[in-house]
Amino acid sequence: MSSSDTCIDIAADRVILDGASKTIKGPGTSTSNFGILVESTANKVILENITVEDLSQGVHVDGPNFSAVGLTTTGNKRGTVINGAFAFLIDQTSQGDNLAGIPANALATDFVMVAGAATGAAGAGILLNGVNGAFIEDATAEGNGKFGIWLKSASNNAIDGFVAESNGIVGVYLGCNTEGPNGTTCAPEPFSGGNSLSGSVYGAKNSVVSNTGSPLNQKYGVAVDGGDLHNHITATTGTGNTLEDAVDGNGCGSNRWFGNSFTNSSPAKGAGFFCIN
Question: Around Cβ 41, how many Cβ atoms within 10 Å?
C-alpha cells in the first residue's frame, strides 16, 4: 500500500477477516494511514492471522466487542490502537512499533489480552492510557525504549503472569511522567489506583521485572509514582535493575506490596518489600 489512505476499512458488524498469514505493508510511518481501521459502527469484528507493518497505525479499533487472534504489527508508529469497549486480543504481537506497541485508551473499558508480546518500541510496549477494568494475562514486554508496561491514569486493572525485562526505564510503571518516576502526582490528570500486579493466576509462577542488561539497561523493575494509591503488587520477582527493583513514591501509603522477591527497594522493606497498611 503506497497511499496515505486506510488499506482496509471495516464499518459493518460481524465481519471476520482471516489474513491467512499474509502481510499488509505500508509506505512508512511518516504518513497518517491505517493498515486496518475498525470503525465505531462495526460491532463484533474479528481479525485472524494478519501481519501489518510500516504504517502510522497498524490496526486502529473504535468498534466495540472487537476480537483478534494471531495479529502481528511490525515497524509502525503505533501498533494496535484500541479505543472500543470489550476488546479481546489473543496471541497479539508487536515488534518495533515506535511510539507504542499495544496502546489502549480511555474508551477501551474492560479490555482483555491473553498471551500478548510487545518488544522494541521506542516508547511503551503495552500502554493502558486512562483504561478502567482491563485484564492482561501472560504478557511479555521486553527491550522497549522507556516502559515495558505503562499504566497512565489507569485504574482497576489486573495484570497477571507478566514478564517486563530490560526496558529503557521501568518494567512496569504506574504514573504520568514520560521519563519515569519522579515522585510527583498526575494532577490534574487522574491517578492510577486500584490496580493489581501479580504472578500467574494459572501457572503458579511469579511475574518478572528483572534487568538482564541487554539490549537496554532497565532502571526500575516496578515503579509507582506519587499520588498513585490503593494498588496491589504481589508474587513479582525483580533483580539487577540499576536503581531499584521496586520503588513507591508514596512511601507505600495505601499501596500493598506482599509476597514479592526484590533485591533492592525504596522505601527499604526487606527483600520482599513487605508493606501492608
Answer: 11
**Letter for the amino acid at 89?**
L
| Rounded alpha-carbon distances, angstroms, from residue 119 to 74, 94, 188 | 10, 6, 31
Cell 490528570, located at residue:
189
* pLDDT per position as a tens digit, 28-65: 888 889 999 999 999 999 999 999 999 999 999 999 99
274: amino acid identity, one letter: F
Type of residue numbered 113: M
With CA atoms as reference, report the closest residue to 237 among 270, 213, 263, 275. 263
As a whole number of Å, the end-to-end CA separation of the chain is 56
Q: What is the H or E stretch that residue 277 is in?
A: none
CA-CA distance, 26 to 249, in Å (whole number)?
Answer: 42
Amino acid of residue 237? T
Structure confidence at residue 74 (pLDDT)? 97
The DSSP code for 266 is E
Chain Cα centroid distance, residue 236: 17
Nearest residue to 17 (alpha-carbon basis) of 78, 67, 75, 81: 67
Q: 89: helix, coil or strand?
A: strand
Cβ-contact 141, 125 below 8 angstroms: yes
Which three cell numbers mark 213? Answer: 542488561
Burial class (CB in 10 A: 0-12, 13-18, 19+), 22: exposed
Buried b (16+ CB within 10 A) or exposed e, 179-211: ebbeeebbeeebbbbbbebbbeeeeeebbbbbb
Please give the grid coordinates belonging to residue 81.
490502537
Average per-residue pLDDT for the chain = 93
Q: Do 120 and 126 contact (CB within 8 A), yes or no?
A: no
Residue 276's pLDDT band, with cuts at 50, 70 and 90, is: low
Sort 152 into a burial class: Cβ within 10 Å, 0-12 / 13-18 / 19+: buried
